[in-house]
Amino acid sequence: MNTPLPPMKYASVLVIRCFKKVEHFADWITGAAGPVFVFLCWVLIGSGGLLFFDVVARDLSYLGVFLLSPILSLVPLNMYGQYYLVTHVPPGYPAPKASGKEDKDIKWTIAMPWSYWSGERWGFIKGERPLTGGYEGSDGAAAGGEANSRVRRCRKCDGPKPERTHHCSVCKRCVLMMDHHCPWINGCVGLYNQRHFVLFMAWLSIGCWTVCGLGYRHFINTFSYRSEWKAYTPKIGFTLIYVLCIAIGVAVPVLMSWHLYMVSKGETSIESHDNAYLEKKAQQEGLIYLNPYDLGRRRNLELFFNVGPGGYSMYTLLFPLVIPPSSNGWTFTRRPLPTTPAKPPGSLHAPELAEGLGLLNATTHGGHAEDGLSGYVMGDDGSLTDDDEGGGGWMD
Ligand SMILES: [Zn+2]
Ligand SMILES: [Zn+2]
């Protein structure tokens, strides 16, 4: 028989329910507004390109066109190409959709060598690096497989949830190596499309700077009634696009730098919250926190773009090509244990920390580690942030 709840308890239950409703509504509106955002983005980058060629490029000399030809060709190619890819390549899922219609484009999750978008089709051949985890420097697959013999289950969709996977409440499914849900692409940024996401931001930034740099004189002209105006575009149109280019040319590079900074640290947007928290917590314990996926700045960036030793050519960054990620999404290359000992740690005050982290030494048992690895804690599998990273990604 149900006993009536005390008033305070009842109020708090009510508040939590309200929050849940608001949260669900925010997720719904993010999903519903997605196509509008994508349409808006196409209108903006489309008109930006058209106006540039109509207003600015028509005044360039033959020599100017020749000297600027790499920019005039590569920027539009990559800006439109990468945006098309980031909106069409699914982020990658650990399992098929539980119910409803399966994506038509699921084939994208496997890079197809015969597709016109694939690097192989254009002569970019991958080096020798297995598409699995393992410890950096080790032979790969064996060590990685061992670390991931048990795969958790998602509490929301009941599907498998490999390491670094999170459940998106907008997409209503689990996403491999999820970074965030982005309304501007109407989907999640994850394992398979994050490369396109970062490269799109890079080429969009270069595009905006090109318009700002080369279109400055035309922008000034739009304020003068007497100035000559040969373009089809009305002056006011160019004024608006130019101002937008300044704003986007400042905001997007900041976002891109932030993403590249996280990539260089071997973490996703979601993991960066976790790692910052765990680092602080470990510090309080006199321990040094290690991100298991941090293989050093250069290597992290190489693995993210899948270039460099064992990956594809650096030139693949210059073209809108589908380059498969360096990981299969189920196992990831992990950093080796440090060989230099850290300071001997004090006793642990927070046992809950030890639960979320794989302790690399014997400190939990009160002993001093004698293997020279004392004082380090390594993140386990990102189990701190359980799921739910949707809705909030309005900024990027
Ligand atoms: Zn899930
Ligand atoms: Zn999503």
Automatic annotation (TrEMBL):
Catalytic reactions of this protein: L-cysteinyl-[protein] + hexadecanoyl-CoA = S-hexadecanoyl-L-cysteinyl-[protein] + CoA
Taxonomic superkingdom: Eukaryota
Domain commentary: The DHHC domain is required for palmitoyltransferase activity.
EC number(s) given by UniProt: 2.3.1.225
Segments forming domain Palmitoyltransferase DHHC: 152-273
Residues covered by region (Disordered): 371-396
GO CC annotations, alphabetized: membrane
Transmembrane segments: 32-53, 60-80, 197-216, 236-261
This protein's record includes keyword Membrane: yes
Organism: Kwoniella shandongensis
Molecular function (Gene Ontology), one example: protein-cysteine S-palmitoyltransferase activity
Keyword set, alphabetical order: Acyltransferase, Lipoprotein, Membrane, Palmitate, Transferase, Transmembrane, Transmembrane helix
Membrane topology: Multi-pass membrane protein
Family: Belongs to the DHHC palmitoyltransferase family.
This protein's record includes keyword Transferase: yes
Protein name according to UniProt: Palmitoyltransferase
Subcellular localization(s) per the UniProt record: Membrane
Top enzyme category: transferase
